[in-house]
Structure formats: C-alpha cells, structure tokens
UniProtKB/TrEMBL annotation:
Keywords: 2Fe-2S, FAD, Flavoprotein, Iron, Iron-sulfur, Metal-binding, Molybdenum, Oxidoreductase. Residues 199-262, 1264-1285, 1315-1370 are annotated as: Disordered. [2Fe-2S] cluster binds at C34, C36. SMART domains: Ald_Xan_dh_C (SM01008). Residues 238-249, 1264-1273, 1315-1335 have a biased composition (Polar residues). One of its GO terms (molecular function) is FAD binding. It comes from the Eukaryota. This is Molybdenum cofactor-binding domain-containing protein. Binds 1 Mo-molybdopterin (Mo-MPT) cofactor per subunit. Binds 2 [2Fe-2S] clusters. The keyword Ion transport does not apply.
Length: 1404
C-alpha cells in the first residue's frame, strides 16, 4: 500500500503536478488488497497527500493520543517535494546502452536495444536447445511479464532463452503519424498509452475545434476525443522513451475510451508494467480476457509484426487475433490507430465482478461515424441524423464446437453494424440493433450463456443511447413522434457506475479514558510503524539458514480415487531437487492434526482435489514447485463420482456422524420434536420455503507458512504462521513421535488468520517437520549426542551412490526446511465456512409477529470433519439472533462431500444464523407488504433480559433507534422511493438489520517480567494476527502496573512495555486465538499477573520509599548492584480461569454448564452478548447487473473499550469482510470436484472500490442509562467492562444483502408494469402470489389474503404497508430469489431477461 501510494506521488512529481487530487490518490491502491482494515484508514492516509483535502474530513483522530509518545512525529512536512536528482534518475532510467546477453544455469538472458538486435536474437535461438530429458527448450519474450500472474507459468524451467524487449527503441515509440493517426510501440505500457490519450484529450477538449473531434462516452454519457489524442500525441521518442506531457491540473477535462475500460481492468501496478504488445499476444495465444483488444478492434487499429529475415507486416487486429502458427518466432512491433474524422464517436465499457482489478465478463467498444441531421423547427424540413459507419466489438467467453472449455473471444458484430450503417438515428434503429445481439454474440453452450447475452444487450443499449443521445434528442424535439407514446426522459438516462465517488466516512469514538490509565485511550497499534515501513517480519521473512531447503506439496488432481502408485522419478531428476517425502516417511502418526481423522499424506485413496499426497524438497522454492508438478500419480476412479453438492450428499446419504454437538436447537416443551403443529395453528403461514447461503474462504494475506529446523538434543524448532502454537506443537509431535518438550513452536505475528490458521496450520508445519526429520535421518548414522542438522543431499546421494565426501558435506551443512503454500494450493487444500441450504416453515400473524418457526438446515462439509462442526454448532446456537420466536425447532445435518476440509471462518455459524434470521423477517415482511424494520421491531427480544444458559438476552433496541436516527432512515426511505420512481435502469434499496453475538471467554495464562532497568516484558497467550491483540495487552499491563505509582505519575509510558513472541517453550498451554475473545482472556491474565507484582512487590516497596518514589527508582531499589537475581518477586505467572469477574476482580464460583465443562471452567463462565445495528443503502444497474454500496451506518457495542482505535479498525474490517460474502465471494466446484475459484483471478475479495462510498462507524457510549440499555453494557462481569469486537460487526453486513433484495424488488416491481420488457422466464413468473404456493412453496394458511389485513388494529405496523397485491407478490419472489453473494450474474438473474427491443417498440 505504501509503495503504491508512493508510486502515485512519484508519477505526479515527475509530471510537475506536486499534489494529485484525492481521486487519484485513492485509486493508487486499486490493485492492493486488504483483509483486515476495511480500507478506510489506508485510503485516508493516501488522500492526506492530495490537494484540496481537509484533514479534519479524514479519519485522523487525536494525533497526540495516536502516537507512541509525546516525542513521536505526528505531522507531515509542509512541503513534500521530489528531489531534482531523483526526478532525473527516474527519467534517465531507460538511457541507451549496449545489448546485454547473459548465460548461466542452462539458460540465456538477452536484452537487445534495437529491433535488429531483437530479430537477430530470435533467429539465433529459434531452436532453443534441449533439456537432458530431451524436451525442447523454448524462447520466451518478456516485458512486464504480468502474464505470469494470471497463468502461473513463471519460471517454467523450459525456457532456453529469455529475451527482454523493454529497451528495444523501435518498440518504445509513441508518436503521431503523418495522416494524424497514432503509432504505439509494442513495448509501450498500458499506463503510458492511457496517460498519453488522457493528456491529449485534455488539451483537445479545451480547443475551439471540439466540433470535429471524436467523442468517447463513459457511463455518464460524457464526451471526449480519442482522435484528438492521436493527432496531439508526442512526436518523438528519444532513446525509445516517450516524452509524455502532463495533464493540466492532473485531471483530464474529458474521459477517453482507454480509461473507461483499460484503466479499470487491471491494477495500476500491472498497467505500469503490462505492454500493449504483450496484451495482444496473450489474447491470441492464451485467451486472455482482454479489454485492450476490444478497444483496438473497435478503433480500427492495425498490428505490425516481423520475423527474423522477414519484412514488416500490417494486419487488422481481428486478423492478428485469428492467426495461427507462424512457422517460426514472430514479434509484435507496433500498433497503429487510424486518424479520427469529424462526427466520430467512441464508447466502451466492461462488466466485471469487482470495480477495480478484475477481468471482464463481457466488454464492448463502439465507434460510430454520425452525420448530423437538420434540426429545423419546421417539421417539413427537419431531417434525422444518420449513422455513416459503425464498428461494434464484443469480448466474451465462448465455447467453440468440440472445445472443452470456454475461451475469450473478441469479434466484430456484422449484423449490428449492417443495421446501424446508413440508418437514421432513432429509437427504432436502436431497437433493431438490440435484436441483432443474439446473431452476433454467440457464447455457445457455456454455463452463463443467458447472462452473457442479456448483459451484452444491456451494454449495447447503454452504448447506443450514450453515443446517439445528442442526435436523438435533437431529432425528437422538432420532428415529434410519428407513432407510439411519448418517450419518458429517464429512458435515455443510462447508468453511471464507472467513476465511483471518492470514499468518505465518519468515525465516532466516545471517551473511554480512565483516570491515570492507558486503558481506553485510542493508541496507535503496537508495531504499526514497522508494518507500514515493511520492516515487520512475518514467518516467511525469518532469516534463511545457510543453504536452506524449500518444500512444495504434491496435491491430488482427483476428488475421489484410489491411488495405485506415485512416480517421483521425473521430479527427482530435476537439478536442485533433494527428496520426495510421502506417508511412508512419517516416523510417528500420519495425521494432519491431533484428534482428527485427516491424514497428513494420502495413502491408498484421495478424497478431494488438492489433498496432500507428498512433499518435494529442493534447493529453491521455484524448483520445488516445478518438481511437484512433475510427480506422476496413478489414479483409479473405481470409487464412483464424487459428492460435491448438498443435493449429492442427500441423495447418497453422505453425512458426518457422531458429531460432538449433535441434536436440534429448540425451545419447545419436552417431548415435542417439531414446530410444525404451531406453524399450522398460526393465522398465516409460509410453507416449504427454501433458501441458501454460500461458502466463503479466509483469504488471509500471508499464506500458510512453516519453517522447521533441528536443534541440539533432538529438539525441533518450528516457526509457524498460526493462531495456536499449541495445536501446531501437538501435530508436529504426533507426526514425529516426539514428546512435546522436544517441539518448540514460535510465532511473532501472522498476516491474518480469520480461523484459517488454527487447525489448518497444523498439516503445513507437520509436513515440513517430517521432511526435516527424513533429511536428518538420511545421514543419521551418528550418535544422538553428536550435534547434527538436516543434511545436504546431493544428486549422487539421491541415486544411492553415497560417497564419504558427500556424507561429510551433508553432515556439516545445517539445513532448515521452509514450506510456504502458494495461493492456488492453499485454495485447494483448505475450505472455508460451510455453505448452507435451509428449508423452513413460518407461522405468523398479520402484524408481522412470528409465532412459530420450523427449520431444517443442511451444511456442506468436507471429506473430513475437521472444523466443520464449529459452523454447525454456532449456527445451531444462534439461529434466534436478536429475536423472540415463541416456538422454534431447528435441526441441522452436516453433509460429507469430496471437498477440502472446512474450518472456521470469521464469525463461523454466527453469520449464517444472522442471514437466516434476517431472511425470515424479510420474507414475512414481503408477504405482508410491510416495512421489514417494523417487522423486526415487532419481533425483538424485550427487556427485562431473559435468562437462558446464563446468557443475557436483553436486546438493545436503543441501538436500532440510534442508528435509525443517525442514518436518517425515514427520510432516506422516501428519497430512495422517489429515486426509484424517476429512474428506470438504476434502482436503490435501503435496509436496517441488527445482530446479537454470544461470547464466551475461555481460560488464558500469562507471564509478566520486570527487568532491572524498569522495562517490562509481557508473554501472553493470544497471537497477534493484525487485530491489535498486543496493543490491548500493553494498555492493560500499563493500567495495572501504574497502580504502584502515585496518581500524578500515572500512567507509565507506552514504551515501557514490550510483548514477547508466542512460543510454546516460553508459555505453553495457551489454547488458540479465536472467537473474538482471546484478547479479553489474554488481557485479564496479564492484569492478574501484573496485580500479583503490584500487590506482593511494588506497593510494599513504594511504601518504604516514600516521597522519592519513581518507577525506575523503585525497580532499581529491588535489584542488587550486580547482575544477580533479585530477592523480590519481579516475574509473575497468572492463569485466568475463565470465570466471571466481579467488581472486586474476583471470580464468582457458581453452577457449571455444558460449555464450562467443555472449556474446563470450574466457576460461572464468563459469557455475554454483544449487539449492534447497521443501516445500508445500495444501488443496482438493471441493464448490466452491476451493484455497489452507497452508504453504511454502523453502530457497535464494544462495552467500555480498552483500545478504541483498535476496536474501530476491527469494526470496519469485519463489516467489509462480510460485504465480500454478500457481494461476490463464493467457493464453487465442478461436477468432478475441481475448484472453479482457486486463484485471485477468479476469487475476488472486496477491493477499496467495494467499500461503501460513505462509511460511518460509531462505538456505543458506555454511559447509557441502565433503564434504556441492558445491565451488561458496559460488561460489568467482563474484562474491565469491555466486549468482543473482532467478529460481531461482521454480522451487520447482512444489511447490505437485505438492501440489495429491496433494490431488486423495486426493479422487478417497476418492470412488471411494462408488459413488453420482460420475457416469460423472469422473476415475475414464479407464481409467488399470496396463497398460491406455486414455485416458492409459499402458502397462506387459514387466514384471508394477508395483504388486505389491517394488522390487528396495530396502526403503526399497518401504516408501513406498501404497494398492491401484485407488488407484494413480486417483492416476495425477489426476497426468495436474492441470495448471497449478490454478484452481477445474480442481479441479472433475479431481475430477469430484459426484452429491450420489445420495450422500445412502444416508443418507436
């Protein structure tokens, strides 16, 4: 993030624009991802460098408190400029030089400086040589080499010659041609091309010749000149480096086609490296989902290529992309744009999963030449404008005849072009062109064919309306309409979702400070400066030992098969490979984790794609991964087809049995096993309804990583990225057959975990440990008391030709094994939260009060139980959420599928429970035609709190009312309704939801030591995962230790306390960091240890010292003059036992419960509920399915916060994490069990553009009156009044899902009134009328049509009714159809297939 921000500033300084605007700085991180923060603070930091930004509008609060001390710098310099010498260095980095040619390791690297040298290198290396295996070596031309990020093919090991073309002068040309066109060298980056066009557009748009310039429309219908860019492009490129002029004020006055598609397609960092030529070659050879190729083809560009010994050849882009084998190496030299003529207009756009840094599902580019008509006021002489020529190009995936997989197709649209060419600009012309989309766009038999066609139709409609609107409006006004009804203005108002507004937000932190204490202050996160500067070390950053070894998993490629044999010979023959490790090499128990049936390495069969079969160890990570791909596994698929879906599992009866948390959740009287009788006796009923919830994976930034080495005495040292050093220690000890006291596991920090580094870190560390053990044992013919490390195994040793010298060398060299799982393998090995399908029946009355609820839920588990039971257990226990259901029965079934083991993901079970509870509320509200907020309020749990398993049940209705007021919900509801009335193609929705999160805090230990100089070292149980664990621990330690000082000297400085790394030899038996309560337990254990030191040592010494007391003096008085142990106690160990904490700090020993026994808590366990509320407003594009979140207001109850700034970050991060699940994240598999999302190319977590454009976060003030709030706020039985915060706000993201449901219902309702706009297969034909029970299974019981009821005389609810009976039917169908994630595909499917031509016919 810091580098991306710096790059944007550098670019601005080089163009003499010392301060870019806020939009530019925010977009600088368009290619960066963050899973923790929610982006807001990062974006604020970027915008702090921008011009015109008021620092008070950013999220910077209390600069003094956010520092680590009074002397820490907090202000930016007044003048931030780039030194002149650095500018010159950057500008001269491409200076001319001689061609470079380097050889080594069987490869050659060439860096020619001219086209002649390049062609010569190609000619000399056309046969590349051969490997020892006989496989021919290839030539690879590289520039930005960004394709390797998509195809994961670098380095492949088969490149005989690598040719770098970035310094070839002829490929770096960017100049105007004599006829006014533009010549672009193939090695010009996409960023350079975009900047050139934008700058030239800015210059031309202010000239007086705008009437003859080509125009480019973006989603707003704005115009600009691509042709002007060509005419005004730079004329010379000395040294192959284009001298690009700067945009005035850093912002072009008019946008351009390249920016409308190209700039949003990939990240800034990729655009700065990816070249024009490389993009075209990857599109032709690999089927890259290119936006640039679509633009170039529509612009009429040509591609120049050359072969060694041949002449230059120009071809249209279409012919270049269609070309096959050239019979030898050929290089792309340049691309040539034709000049643009008067009347030319250009429009382009793409539809993708995510606004920034995502490949297109469909893209389009349209260039039209328009002859203006006569707009005379006299109808007899007025004439329409006409389309002189047209080029319409679509890009989309298509399945060719006989093909196995879709491939990206870029092609012209002859049928559409024929209709447009020579036609008058009219509604009829647009309608005819839309009808031809199905003739020109032919995706074939692909899964998303209907989506691709409907989206292409919507995009073309936007393109034609945007480009033809000026001529169309000018024609319609004087001429009038020959037939049809008047054309509403909003028909021609196409959506504008491309240029999203700059994000903004408000953060409210109440005053949680305590007198003389560091607790409650919004301190900067511990070691935040190290993270921002890149100095913080994660597991993979730990120093390599001399000649370290690297490992890579060999994963199964089949989901269910018998393993007949494994052949690693090809891998072992690869230079640099040391060994292959399999199940037979495990000295202990071949299990992935303690107490789990999952094998560390598969033996006789595999049960999911990606299941580890073995491990390859090599001298580099690249070699290890290449070798792993060479291992051949002989499979036999005699076990039948794999179980992949819940439907498969139910059909085959595949379920996990003997679950530790089996049985339904019910509040029915004993002996009643179903709520159906209560449902059937209710006045109104919804029967047999179904709904589903998707899977979501962790996507931590740091991959699963472990480093293992042997230490003296047979001790094994493990550095692991884990949430639990205990679990890793147990797994490694079990795999190696060692006692725990010979396995030390350490973790300084982990780059995110979210549950994925709890049990799933175990097989990674255990596998690396087995490899280390085997390599040590291969030279282990020495006595144990001889100091040895893992060995260096030469190729001769692999071939069993062991020489004495090799044994001596192997014995001397100390080798560690490092295993970092790449992202693709991580996706395949590990699964996230369980997908859920639910069947339910609801009984309710006409006021919206739910009387009975019967649910059957099916969770999609993996092949092994692993952590799936956590989802099941938490879903089971949280289904009622913040609502009072008088009679409910909830039964769950965990399916066993041939998928990777599932494990907990942030808020496991709780988020699914929240989504289900809110969906039930939404369904009832839709059936009755009521505002869902009124139905929620009707069903809230009420004060006083109701005891249930000692969990407070008081619902914070005040939270909802506060959010409702702050978010101006009532006013904005009216505004949303008015917006939807005025807009046809864009609809908005607004919704409020609430959450209740049950927390239980298990026991934790801690050690606190005071050194001779007064500094303090804290060793805590909790792991630092980026959540601010160590910051809270530090603040609590200072709070408690400061009690030994006079009030005027409190608190101790923050720098006085440091927090130790987690390590099982330093502090064993710590459990794991999970459940949002590890910080509370760790803080309480630290507080108790500090309290021991204060009460037993420090306070007595302070009384002796009297007036001369200072912290340093007091500690010095307890130390001897020489470095011998002090006589006083300066180290304390404490174990907080997990019981409630009374006001005097003692635990209350009361009754046991099931959970207290599970966690071995002897007294009354500390458990409580955390509440929150959120209001979210969203927008959807009916034509393309695009959607975004406009605004979110979130209020969270953190109790009496210990570290408000940390808690604020957790609330923001959790909410945005949940938005990923609501908007776009879902892990899916093919029928054969192959993951369809196993990389960042397809699995898209939220980017900075996905967060709400206005994000307002507040923490609840802890001083609310007990009369209006439950008596557990602040948490009087918790740790210093605080509450959990890591997961609860995640549940509030459900408000986005319900808001999208409202927006889609508004769209469906509006479209239902246009009988010609929808085809029969739409949402409107689900038969979901009141009482019909068709399709959705909805059925009215004994009551009459519920939409006509008065609400039992309750006017406050009855007044919330909206719409006719038909509208209620459409809304209910929308609620049933809209499930997470609300992708662009889902929006288009829920709205239905638009028949735009038929709709336009009525106005033609």
């Amino acid at each position: 993030m810091a580098v991306a921000c710096h790059a944007a500033l550098t670019k601005a300084h080089l163009s003499d624009d010392c301060q870019p605007d806020a939009a530019t700085m925010e977009k600088s991180v368009d290619g960066n991802l963050c899973r923790c923060t929610g982006y807001r603070p990062i974006l604020d930091a970027c915008k702090s460098f921008a011009k015109g930004v008021d620092m008070e509008d950013l999220g910077v609060r209390d600069a003094a408190a956010m520092s680590h001390g009074p002397d820490a710098p907090t202000d930016l310099p007044d003048d931030i400029t780039m030194p002149a010498w650095l500018k010159d260095h950057v500008k001269l980095k491409a200076a001319c030089g001689d061609a470079v040619h380097v050889t080594g390791s069987g490869q050659a690297w060439a860096a020619p400086r001219s086209l002649g040298q390049l062609l010569e290198a190609l000619g000399q290396n056309r046969h590349g040589g051969r490997e020892r295996s006989g496989r021919p070596l290839s030539i690879r031309i590289v520039a930005g080499n960004t394709g390797a990020g998509v195809y994961k093919d670098w380095p492949s090991g088969h490149e005989g010659t690598i040719i770098d073309v970035t310094k070839v002068a002829e490929l770096r040309v960017l100049e105007t041609t004599q006829d006014g066109g533009l010549l672009v060298g193939a090695a010009i980056t996409q960023e350079e091309l975009i900047d050139c066009l934008l700058d030239s557009s800015s210059s031309s748009s202010s000239s007086s010749s705008s009437s003859s310039s080509a125009k480019s429309g973006r989603r707003s219908g704005a115009d600009s000149s691509r042709g002007a860019a060509a005419r005004r492009a730079p004329g010379s490129c000395p040294n192959g480096q284009p001298q690009l002029p700067s945009c005035r004020n850093g912002q072009p006055e008019r946008p351009l086609p390249c920016s409308s598609s190209g700039s949003g397609s990939v990240a800034s960092a990729v655009r700065a490296a990816a070249t024009v030529g490389g993009n075209l070659v990857l599109t032709r050879d690999r089927g890259l989902e290119s936006d640039l190729a679509t633009l170039l083809m529509a612009a009429g560009a040509e591609v120049q290529t050359m072969k060694p010994g041949g002449s230059a050849r120009w071809r249209p882009v279409k012919d270049f992309l269609a070309a096959g084998d050239f019979g030898g190496p050929e290089v792309v030299v340049a691309v040539r744009f034709p000049p643009v003529r008067p009347g030319d207009v250009f429009w382009s756009y793409k539809v993708a999963q995510r606004h920034w840094n995502a490949h297109a599902f469909v893209n389009v580019a349209v260039q039209l030449a328009i002859d203006a008509g006569n707009t005379s006021a006299d109808p007899t002489t007025a004439t329409s404008a006409t389309v002189r020529s047209a080029r319409v190009v679509f890009g989309y995936p298509a399945l060719e005849k006989g093909g196995n997989a879709p491939r990206w197709r870029v092609g012209r649209s002859p049928a559409i072009e024929r209709i447009l060419t020579g036609a008058a600009v009219s509604i009829a012309t647009i309608a005819a062109a839309l009808r031809a989309v199905h003739d020109d766009v032919a995706p074939g038999d692909v899964r998303d064919a209907a989506f691709l066609l409907s989206t292409a139709e919507g995009l073309l409609f936007e393109a034609l309306v945007s480009t033809l609107k000026p001529a169309l409006v000018a024609t319609l006004k004087p001429v009038g309409l020959a037939a049809g009804k008047p054309l509403p203005e909003y028909i021609l108002e196409t959506p504008s979702l491309h240029d999203i507004p700059v994000s903004a937000g408000r953060q409210f932190l109440p005053d949680f400070s305590r007198p003389g204490s560091a607790a409650g202050l919004p301190l900067m996160k511990e070691r935040a400066l190290l993270q921002a500067s890149g100095e913080a070390k994660y597991t993979g950053d730990m120093p390599e030992q001399r000649e370290s070894l690297f490992a890579a998993f060999v994963g199964s490629t089949e989901a269910l098969a018998v393993v007949k044999g494994v052949d690693a010979s090809a891998a072992l023959a690869l230079p640099g490979v040391v060994a292959y490790i399999g199940a037979e090499d495990v000295p202990g128990v071949n299990k992935a984790a303690t107490g789990d049936a999952e094998l560390l390495f598969a033996t006789d069969k595999v049960e999911w794609v990606g299941q580890p079969i073995g491990l390859v160890v090599a001298e580099s990570r690249a070699v290890a991964e290449r070798a792993a791909a060479l291992v051949k596994v002989d499979y036999s698929c005699e076990l039948g087809p794999p179980v992949v879906t819940i439907e498969d599992a139910r059909r085959e009866g595949a379920f996990h049995d003997s679950l530790p948390v089996a049985g339904p959740n019910s509040n029915l009287p004993d002996g009643q096993h179903s709520a159906l009788p209560a449902v059937e006796s209710s006045p109104l009923q919804i029967r047999g309804a179904k709904w589903r919830i998707p899977n979501q994976t962790h996507f931590y930034m740091e991959p699963q990583t472990a480093i293992v080495s042997w230490d003296e005495g047979g001790v094994i040292q493990v550095q692991a990225a884990t949430q639990s050093t205990d679990h890793v220690q147990w797994a490694v000890a079990q795999a190696l057959g060692l006692p725990h006291n010979r396995v030390n596991v350490a973790c300084r920090r982990a780059g995110g975990g979210f549950g994925g580094k709890f049990s799933r870190a175990c097989p990674v560390a255990a596998a690396a440990a087995v490899a280390t053990h085997k390599l040590r044992r291969q030279v282990g013919h020495f006595k144990d008391n001889f100091y040895t490390k893992e060995n260096f195994v030469t190729r001769g040793l692999r071939d069993s030709h062991i020489a004495g010298a090799a044994i001596v060398a192997a014995h001397k060299l100390r080798r560690q094994v490092r295993l970092g799982v790449n992202r693709n393998q991580d996706f395949r090995m590990n699964n996230g939260r369980a997908a859920v399908e639910v069947e339910y029946d609801i009984g309710f009355d006409d006021s919206g009060k739910i009387l009975a609820l019967e649910m059957q839920a099916y969770l999609l588990g993996g092949a092994q139980l692993s952590g799936s039971f956590v989802d099941l257990y938490q879903l089971k226990g949280n289904i009622d959420q913040a609502y009072a259901f008088p009679a409910f029965h909830f039964d769950l079934h965990l399916c066993r599928a041939n998928l990777p083991p599932h494990t907990a993901v942030r808020g496991p079970g709780e988020i699914q429970a929240t989504m289900l509870a809110e969906h039930v509320i939404e369904h009832v509200a839709a059936r009755l035609g009521l505002d869902p907020v009124a139905v929620r309020e009707r069903n809230f749990l009420q004060l006083p709190e109701v005891a249930n398993a000692a969990v407070p049940k008081g619902v914070k209705t005040a939270l909802g009312q506060e959010v409702k007021k702050d978010a101006e919900y009532d006013r904005r509801c009216k505004e949303v309704a008015e917006f939807n009335r005025q807009h046809k193609w864009v609809k908005r929705g607004i919704s409020m939801t609430h959450c209740r999160f049950r927390s239980m805090v298990p026991p934790r230990p801690a050690v606190v030591s005071i050194f001779a100089d007064g500094s303090v070292m804290v060793t805590t149980a909790g792991a630092e995962l980026g959540q601010g664990m160590f910051t809270k621990v530090t603040q609590v330690a200072i709070h408690e230790l400061s009690k030994a000082l006079p009030e005027e000297q409190r608190p101790l400085p923050v720098e006085c306390v440091a927090v130790n790394d987690n390590a099982s030899f330093w502090l064993p038996n710590t459990g794991g960091t999970a459940g949002s309560t590890a910080a509370e337990g760790s803080c309480e254990a630290v507080r108790l240890a500090c309290k021991q030191l204060v009460e037993e040592t420090l306070k007595p010494q302070a009384l002796k010292m009297g007036n001369g007391l200072t912290w340093r003096a007091m500690i010095a008085s307890l130390q001897p003059k020489t470095p011998f142990p002090p006589t006083a106690k300066l180290t304390a160990y404490a174990l907080w036992d997990g019981t409630q904490i009374n006001d005097d700090g003692t635990g209350a020993l009361l009754q046991k419960s099931a959970l207290s026994v599970f966690f071995r808590v002897q007294g009354k366990k500390l458990q409580y509920s955390t509440f929150g509320a959120a209001c979210t407003e969203v927008e959807v594009n009916v034509l393309t399915g695009e959607r975004h979140v406009i605004r979110a207001d979130v209020l969270h109850d953190a109790g009496h916060s210990i570290s408000p700034a940390v808690d604020m970050g957790q609330v923001e991060g959790a909410f945005v994490f949940g938005l990923g699940m609501m908007l776009q994240e879902s892990v899916t598999y093919s029928e054969t069990g192959q993951p369809t999302y196993d990389s960042t190319w397809d699995y898209k977590i939220p980017s900075a553009a996905c967060i709400p454009r206005q994000l307002n976060i507040s923490l609840l003030e802890a001083s609310h009156s007990p009369q209006t709030m439950p008596n557990d706020s602040p948490n009087k039985h918790g740790m210093m009044g605080s509450k959990s915060v890591g997961e609860p706000p995640l549940l509030l993201s459900t408000s986005a899902l319900t808001a999208f449901s409202a927006a889609i219902a508004a769209a469906a309702t509006d479209l239902s009134n246009d009988s010609d706009i929808t085809k029969p297969s739409t949402i409107l034909d689900t038969g979901a009328k009141s009482g019909t029970g068709t399709d959705t299974g909805a059925k009215i019981g004994t009551g009459a049509d519920s939409s006509a009821k008065s609400g039992n005389g309750k006017d406050d609810v009855g007044s919330a009714r909206s719409g006719s009976s038909a509208d209620v039917s459409v809304r209910e169908a929308a609620v049933q159809r809209v499930c997470a994630p609300v992708t662009v595909r889902a929006v288009r499917a829920a709205v239905g297939s638009l028949h735009l031509p038929g709709f336009l016919d009525q106005y033609a």
